[in-house]
């Protein structure tokens, strides 16, 4: 991995990774005596990784969820699903490129997949609108949810967005209504819904496709009503000092509690999906394999419920969010 893709807290790992790669290159040229040394360095790197990642702050976990090499929906789809056939358009206005979805099979089970897609380079980011959906994106997702219900296919959702698109055109075409409509309709869709936050889960942009019977988060993702930067800007306004601005973002992240451990403890999510050592960006195939196994496990459980039980349990799940008992 290129040096520019290492985050600040990952810097101690860079030199060991470089040495490992250099030795692997030499081993490919025929020097077999290096294999033992490579194994020792990999063990050292793994210990260092475990130590670094076990001490990450909430703000650092948010940064990891935004890692430039983190797997996006279309990186995971071919590794998790078979026979994916993408469907386009909302049948009202346009085809939103930030919202993707279609028919697929999950280990032989016919499903409908819906997700949010970001771009890697400048051209792709513009094409995918940085993963921020317009109203037609949410209406496209709803069309797919209705198709899933019609053909009795479970719905698998990957959430990864910095938020719904806040532009004037999106507001004119009913952004808030489209998100609210999805929340209403998803509450009563008569097929199992499994939601996984794979990167960023920001505000209504995430919630617009985030209602499910099971809501999971990858280990290094975040899910909150607002980003730490947005929260910081509201509470402390614009700060010219970069160090103070960073301190404010850290403080906001601590207050928001947006990471999986926090949300599991608060009962907002149902499962934390482990990532390979060093994060999902280091091994897409391993990350996808872990996610696939858990998706199959949850799907098998949900598929045994009849429609009435499924909807009653879903309604109960959301009605009890935020309920507290005073002693």
Q: What would CATH call the homologous superfamily of the largest domain? A: 2-enoyl-CoA Hydratase, Chain A, domain 1
Number of strands: 8
Per CATH, the class of the largest domain reads Alpha Beta
- Label the structural class: alpha/beta
Distance between the termini: 52 Å
Taking the sheet with the most strands, its summary is: 8 strands, mixed
What Rg is obtained from the alpha carbons, in whole angstroms? Answer: 21 Å
Q: Please state the average pLDDT score.
A: 92
Taking pLDDT < 50 over at least 5 consecutive residues as the criterion, the unreliable ranges are none
What does the model show?
- The chain is of the alpha/beta class and 327 residues long.
- The chain folds into two domains: 3-55; 62-319, 2-enoyl-CoA Hydratase, Chain A, domain 1 (Alpha-Beta Complex).
- It contains 14 helices and eight strands.
- Strands 1, 2, 3, 4, 5, 6, 7 and 8 form an eight-stranded mixed β-sheet that branches.
- Strand 5 (193-202), helix 9 and strand 6 form a beta-alpha-beta unit.
- Helix 1 (11-28) packs antiparallel against helix 2 (35-54) and helix 10 (228-236) packs across helix 11.
